[in-house]
Amino acid sequence: MRSTASRRDGRKRLVAAETALSPLADDAGIDRAQPIPDQVYRLLRQSIITLRLPPGATIIEKQITDQLGISRTPVRDALRQLADEGLVNVKPQSGTFVALIDRQQLAEGRLVRRALELEGIKLAVARVTDADLDRLRDILALQERAAKRNSYADFIAYDDQFHRAINEASGMPRLWRVISGAKAQLDRVRHLSAPLPGQSARVLSQHRAIVAALARHDGERSVRALTHHLDDAYDRLTILLKQHGEMFG
């Protein structure tokens, strides 16, 4: 087990590495025809989820306003939303920081995701169409190409598209909105896990098994394949609790 001093040093290194990094993606921009606070929220959330802004990093409002060419008001509105989600800590007279990955919220997010996705696939089995299956296979092909490029961010984005497509095939597309909102901490750990040896091949194989079961309209096999996939993924994420203790709180 890592010592308290070791974890403290790790956090300091994370913050130091962040200071030279722009808080948002280089191509981040604002559409003036759309609500600005919502856009700032999505951009900042993406930076936090993908670990561009790692746990413990300082969020400097001026960097964001300068990059996007906006006032501080929508940035502060976005930060309040992120604080409500447990992704940001606002400390008066001290600053605004990316929150450490909360272990309790991580476990809760896993529970919500598992429960709702399994209910979703039970419904999808009876409703899935050839068009739905083609869509899932197309996403798998894109995900496989992302894996070959070692593009982990794209790989995870296609992973979300895959699971969302199954939820939409269930006839209850709003399930994914609930799942997505609950799994913010889980997503941060997923971005840590993507480079693990064999992870991409493992995920692709499990996704193919899910599609094969759905194509047969086999409810028992579909649930079993998705259960194995979600549980195996979470088991592998727990490896990172030991490897990156400085990121968790």
Judged by helices, strands and strand pairing, the structural class is mainly alpha
Arrangement of strands in the largest sheet:
1-3-2
Write the CATH homologous superfamily of the largest domain. GntR ligand-binding domain-like
> What proportion of the residues form beta strands (DSSP E)?
under 5%
**Number of helices, counting only DSSP H or I runs of 4 residues or more:** 11
Order of helices and strands: HHEHHEEHHHHHHH
Overall pLDDT:
89
Count the beta strands.
3
| CATH architecture title of the largest domain | Up-down Bundle
Number of domains: 2
Helix content: 55-70%
The rounded distance between the terminal residues' Cα atoms is 15 Å
What is the CATH C-level name of the largest domain? Mainly Alpha
How can the largest sheet be summarized? 3 strands, antiparallel
Structure summary:
This protein has 249 residues and is mainly alpha-helical. It contains 11 helices and 3 strands, in the order ααβααββααααααα.
Please give a structural write-up.
It is a single chain. The chain has 249 residues and is mostly helical. It has 2 domains: 4-98, Arc Repressor Mutant, subunit A (Orthogonal Bundle); 103-247, Up-down Bundle (Four Helix Bundle (Hemerythrin (Met), subunit A)). The protein contains 11 helices and 3 strands, in the order H-H-E-H-H-E-E-H-H-H-H-H-H-H. Strands 1-3-2 form a 3-stranded antiparallel β-sheet. Helix 6 (130-148) packs antiparallel against helix 10. The longest helix has 25 residues, at 103-127.
